[in-house]
Design a protein that fits this description.
The complex is a heterotrimer. Chain A is 84% helix and 0% strand. Chain A is mainly alpha-helical. Chain A has a single domain, classed as Fumarate reductase/succinate dehydrogenase, transmembrane subunit (3 helical TM bundles of succinate and fumarate reductases, Up-down Bundle), CATH 1.20.1300. Chain A is elongated, with a radius of gyration of 18 Å. By secondary structure, chain C is α+β, with helices and mostly antiparallel strands. Chain C folds into two domains: 5-102, Ubiquitin-like (UB roll) (Roll); 105-235, Fumarate Reductase Iron-sulfur Protein, Chain B, domain 2 (Orthogonal Bundle), CATH 1.10.1060. In chain C, α7 crosses α10 and α8 packs across α10. The longest helix of chain C is centred in the last third of the chain and has 17 residues, at 219-235. The termini of chain C are far apart. Classes of the chains: A mainly alpha, B mainly alpha, C alpha+beta. Chains A and B meet through α1, α3 and α4 of A and α1, α2, α3 and α4 of B.
Chain lengths: 119, 112, 240
């Protein structure tokens, strides 16, 4: 195998682990928030009051979403390579597409929530 | 006939793959609907009250279990790959399983 | 006990074939290899299987016994026969030659691909290398060197079924013992050989190899070690 292909494979593997490490923190916060927020039923006022206009929550969700956009497509790539007949170049394309979809939708949702509240 | 796959670390692998796939399938829908609802606030209210129905609470509990299973299973893999080997792999599978079920229960009890 | 019979179904043929069933007298302390030998000597001389040492040293008698890869010479019938039934297949993930014999060429070629042979730079005129048995690297190396090359781990590994180019647990375990051998000079050349998705990064830590290794070795742990070392080398730019 060429050295550059080896480097790409290694960096992708490492990117998945590093993003996983960030996601450990993000998901712990996310699950805790869900458990707290769901008490007495979700309400939009409560969510907007917590997240709307908060730069801290905005940055949190931007980091969260970007890490997922790195982490998930690399996992899907492995699953498609191992368990489907899809040709490799199409798998790469699908993974990149999935990453973009998560990234765009996630950033839109994060800014949407931010824009709903505060001053 | 005993199956070669019948051991805790293989179940953990299957759970990690299934939960990863399920989360990957759910995520675009989650983010898309959230984004749509945010575009107008009455739609956001409708979306939130829809998510408070019992069926949705039940499905959300499933997602919380999958999410925490993928989280704890992932921590197990990171420890296994990056730390010096310890002979507590099977305990880690059990721990990961226990934490996930607890997280789901706590969510469900709080939600109902 | 000796009046009992074991019902033995054995795969006959190569890739295409069928099961043939034999009745074998049950004996005390009988191994699965004893059963196969009895069938070939007493019932059906056309049965092909492979063995040499009969005492768990040579690694040539591994087969699939009731669905799991095992060394048959050290596997007692009493431990594995379920309801007096034994089903014997050749090892998985290797081309079938005939009956219980598989072609292990690819399996062993992968050891060579993983730079699985020792290369030193000393001559007979140099002093012996002094390595304490307590040396941490020596301990890591010693933990993996008892591999007998039976192929049970390889036949169990899912990753090989999905990606036939994957080097597999045995070859990677061997490479890890040499990475930790201070006398070996292959160094980065070996790390490059075991890096990437066809090498150590392909492993999903399912640990079927650990479950099935008759010598109780830990290929998953060895592969995790290779992951850390190859990544360090790639980050330092040493593998390009």
């Amino acid at each position: 195998m060429s050295a550059s292909a080896l480097r790409i494979e290694t960096y992708l593997w490492l990117a998945q682990r590093v993003s996983a490490l960030i996601l450990v923190i993000c998901i712990t916060v996310h699950i805790a928030t869900m458990i707290i927020a769901v008490q007495g039923g979700l309400s939009s006022e409560e969510i907007i009051a917590r997240i709307g206009g908060s730069k801290i929550w905005l940055s949190f969700y931007l980091v969260f979403v970007s890490s997922v956009a790195v982490h998930a497509p690399i996992g899907l790539k492995s699953i498609m390579r191992e368990m489907s007949q899809i040709p490799t170049n199409r798998i790469d394309l699908l993974s990149i597409l999935f990453s973009l979809i998560i990234g765009v939708l996630g950033i839109r949702a994060a800014f949407g929530l931010y824009g709903l509240g505060g001053a | 006939m005993k199956n070669i796959h019948n051991h805790p670390n293989y179940w953990a692998f299957i759970m990690h793959r299934l939960s990863g796939l399920a989360l990957a399938a759910f995520l675009p829908v989650h983010l898309y609907v959230l984004g749509l609802a945010l575009a107008d606030s009455s739609a956001f209210d409708d979306f939130i009250s829809w998510s408070n129905t019992p069926l949705l609470k039940f499905l959300e509990t499933g997602l919380v279990v999958f999410l925490s299973a993928h989280l704890t299973g992932g921590v197990r893999l990171l420890a296994l790959e990056f730390l010096e080997w310890r002979d507590w792999q099977n305990s880690m599978v059990a721990l990961s399983c226990g934490i996930s079920i607890c997280a789901g229960l706590v969510f469900f009890l709080n939600a109902t | 006990m000796s009046n009992d019979l074991i019902n033995v179904s054995i795969w006959r043929g190569g890739e295409d074939g069928e099961y043939q069933t034999y009745q074998v007298p049950r004996l005390e302390s009988q191994t699965v290899l004893d059963v196969v030998t009895y069938i070939q000597r007493e019932l059906d001389p056309s049965l092909s299987y492979r063995f040499a040492c009969r005492v768990g040293v040579c690694g040539s008698c591994a087969m699939t016994v009731n669905g799991k890869a095992r060394w048959t010479c050290r596997t007692h019938v009493s431990k594995v026969a379920e309801g007096g039934q034994l089903t014997l297949d050749p090892l998985n993930s290797m081309p079938r030659v005939k009956d219980l014999v598989v072609d292990m060429e690819t399996f062993f070629n992968k050891w060579a691909d993983a730079k699985g042979s020792f290369k030193g730079d000393k001559t007979r005129d140099d002093a012996l290398a002094y390595i304490s048995p307590d040396d941490p690297k020596r301990k890591i190396s010693s933990a993996g060197i008892e591999c007998i090359g039976c192929g049970a781990c390889y036949a169990t590994c899912d990753v090989i079924k999905w990606n036939p180019d994957y080097l597999g647990p045995a070859a990677l375990n061997r490479a890890w013992t040499l990475v930790n051998d201070e006398r070996d000079v292959t160094g980065l050349e070996r790390l490059a050989a075991v890096a990437g998705d066809n090498g150590c990064l392909g492993c999903h830590s399912q640990q079927g190899c650990v479950e099935r290794c008759p010598k109780s070795l830990n290929p998953t742990g060895a592969i995790a070690g290779l992951k850390r070392e190859t990544i360090k080398a790639v980050l330092k730019g040493e593998l390009s």
